[in-house]
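Problem 3 from the worked examples.
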Amino acid sequence: MVPPGSQLGPLSEAERKAALVGSPVAGHYEKQVDRESAYEKLKARTEELAREQAQAQPKQGSVASDILFGRTGPRGGRQSQGLLEAMAKSAARTVGSQVGREFIRGVLGSLLGKRR
């Protein structure tokens, strides 16, 4: 029989110090490091972007530019679609559907067309 390799009771102060000094990571985890958290980094980035936007753009947009180009929210997101963007989307959709319709007619007409 082999006696147990562990101790059942608490360590004495001298044994505790000897275990700490003999540890391979002794001295490494005793240093306190206060790193910048992700929250702090994101908060600083949003504050910097807000300052840049405040300097680059005037506070109030004109009504005409809001109607033509749309509005942007306080966080930079789009709130509404402008008149020019709506017209461009509509024109692109119309052209795309017309081209698609003509293509399908051509393909189906050549496959299923009448023989002369």
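Problem 4, a separate protein:
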Amino acid sequence: MAIAHDSEVLGAANASAATYTTAITPANPPKGVVVIIVGNSNVDHVQVVTYGGVALTRRRFDTEATEAGGVYIYWGATDFPTGAQNVVVGRTNDTVSLRAAISTMTVAAGMTVAVDSDASALSASVANPSWAHASLADSVVAYLGIHSGLTTMTSTPAAGWTLAPTPGFEDYGAQGRGWARRTLATAGALAPGWAASTADDFVGSSVAFKEVPIVVGVAGQISPAVAGRQQTVERQVPTFL
């Protein structure tokens, strides 16, 4: 068994100053969670993201200013609470439009989720936007989010990617946004992007995840063997004199 995408949900668009909450009920107990938020501002409007009360870690916040927008990537790896849970986005007191795609992942016993790699790109005007992103390991699951200045947002991600979570894209006003995912069995190019024949501005971000062993160290310390910005979880064992 390798890392696998499990469940997903696309929250409703949120332009309220109140906290932004989306419910999800994973099919299996999640070992990893990724939340990709796309908004129509290049200013940071997200303070914190939690899954079932567990704080997630920001991995990326990428922006472009032509028709202002940004993509946030938050993630976490632990034994998350099972069953129906709320994903809560703590946002600044504003009315910027945000929309969050939430996905959960599973791994084999004795393993945990780690970031494999991530990437981003932007342009003031380009057709069929894409960016370079190659996985470093075999058997990864990858996710992307994109903000676009297209007046009519298209519904087709780049080849090899699946539009998700349903409906996977949104056209709002003179802008649009989209989300997609893919699985790659052998390390190599993930080729994230979007099919849009009309040139316009965009910013897109992607992240790939892998599974790694949970390493049990000395003195009962437990930490995932990870690369990048994986958080360390430790259990302290009392010392008796």
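Solution to problem 4. The first strand starts at residue 4 and ends at 10. The radius of gyration is 18 Å.
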